[in-house]
Automatic annotation (TrEMBL):
The lineage of its organism: Bacteria, Bacillati, Actinomycetota, Actinomycetes, Propionibacteriales. GO terms for molecular function: magnesium ion transmembrane transporter activity. Coiled coil: none annotated. It comes from Kribbella steppae. The keyword Methyltransferase does not apply. This is Mg/Co/Ni transporter MgtE.
Length: 420
């Protein structure tokens, strides 16, 4: 591995692309796996956790890594695709060791780990040789001194720390999309999930929760105080919040709904009245709704909202007032692709698709999926018997229910990850 630097800081590895010898990307680095050893011996680096394109996390032994540098990792062509399962003797550096409170042996002062460095010895083994720490500051709002120390100069990694922070692991994963950060959380221990969830702001945590399996969602929400849990639910899209609340005990669900803002709670309560695998149970109550006198420029300004999913941003819904669901009479939909071809001053009412008969809230999942496929749509309106818009079903929510319950975790089965 002559092309590798002698020392590599782990936080800088997070998200780096991993390439095979032909230059094709295999995946991205998500963590480093080490084995702690007795005494003062530095931990041995066993390998990397790599996320491949199916969002599956696999184990890449360091013996399969031919080069590590600031911009990428190169591996041999032999990559085992079996899902990574952490063993009892293994520790994740980013997931478990960053933000640990340790003691600097020489001074006895405490410090927080914000990075670690690994290097390759002459034996060709990789070890975790350096620990970057920041001392606890005794002055108000002042940062303590930072040090890069040998592994033997600090102690405290062997103890379980309650209330471990998450500032530095979140900094390492700051650029991750919510779905990717959800994948990281899913692989961690319940203790670490709880600590990281506590450190995320409400909006970021809501986005991540929407991408997690239901069991993880319920576990994380239960670990929050009730008022914060209600705040996070308010930040979730109403359909996802309704799905999560439906998994909670009735008493807990009602308490959270009571603490939510009345308008937000009303949307969720309405969605909870529908069966799960129906158009009403699948829909969001917050599509982009505009009046008939809105212009194309107005429509395009609304769909630029970064919080909209691509499917929701693909279509606007034009209705008579009121414009909150359930709306006044539904008039038609505007396809963004069509609106992009029109002058900004044109009224959306002049370019509407009025031929779509919307879905009904009790339409089954089969009917909904067939409707989207028949009309080549990524979203569709849901109307009541009076022709009022209740919400919109998007293809991503349909796929969530068509795929197996464990689709976020499952993948092709391969041979043992430690096989040669």
């Amino acid at each position: 591995m002559s092309g590798s630097p002698s020392r590599v800081y782990v936080a800088r590895l997070a998200g780096l692309p991993v390439y095979d010898p032909n230059g094709d990307q295999v995946g991205k680095v998500r963590d480093v796996v080490v084995m702690l050893r007795q005494g003062t011996q530095p931990p041995r680096v066993l390998g990397l956790v790599v996320e491949v394109f199916t969002r599956r996390r696999i184990f890449l032994p360091m013996t399969r890594v031919t080069s590590v540098d600031a911009g990428h990792v190169i591996t041999t062509g032999l990559v085992n695709m079996r899902r990574f399962e952490q063993r009892a003797t293994e520790v994740l550096v980013l997931g478990e060791l960053l933000d640990r409170t340790v003691t600097i042996n020489e001074t006895g002062t405490t410090a927080v780990v914000f990075d670690m460095a690994m290097e390759q010895w002459r034996t060709r083994d990789w070890v975790m040789s350096k620990v970057a720490v920041r001392e606890s500051s005794k002055r108000f709002r002042r940062r303590g001194q930072s040090h890069v120390l040998d592994w033997t100069d600090v102690s405290g990694f062997a103890q379980v720390e309650e209330g471990q922070g998450a500032t530095h692991i979140l900094a390492a994963f700051d650029s991750m999309k919510p779905a990717d950060l959800a994948g990281v959380l899913h692989e961690l221990s319940p203790k670490r999930r709880k600590e990281i969830a506590a450190a995320l702001n409400d909006e970021r945590l809501a986005d991540v929760l929407e991408e997690l399996p239901e069991d993880d969602q319920v576990e994380i929400l239960a670990g929050l105080d009730t008022e914060r849990a209600a705040d996070v639910l308010e930040e979730m899209s109403p359909d996802d919040a309704a799905d999560l609340i439906a998994e909670l005990p009735t008493e807990t669900a009602e308490r959270l709904l009571t603490l939510m803002e009345p308008d937000e709670a009303e949307d969720v309560r309405r969605l909870l009245t529908y069966e799960e695998r129906t158009a009403g149970g699948l829909m969001t109550s917050e599509p982009v709704i505009l009046p008939a006198d809105a212009t194309v420029a107005d429509a395009l300004a609304h769909v630029r909202n970064a919080e909209l999913s691509p499917a929701l941003a693909a279509m606007i819904y034009v209705c008579r007032p009121p414009l909150e669901t359930p709306t006044g009479r539904f008039i038609g939909v505007g396809h963004i692709q069509r609106l992009l071809r029109e002058p900004p001053s044109e009224l959306v009412s002049a370019v509407l698709d009025t031929d779509l008969d919307g879905l009904r809230p009790d339409d089954s999942l089969h009917v909904v999926s067939k409707y989207l496929a028949t009309y080549n749509l990524v979203a569709a309106p849901v109307l009541d018997d009076e022709g009022r818009l209740l919400g919109a079903v998007t293809v991503d929510d349909v796929l969530d229910h068509l795929l197996p319950d464990d689709w976020r975790e499952s993948g092709p089965q391969e041979v043992d990850r430690h096989a040669p």
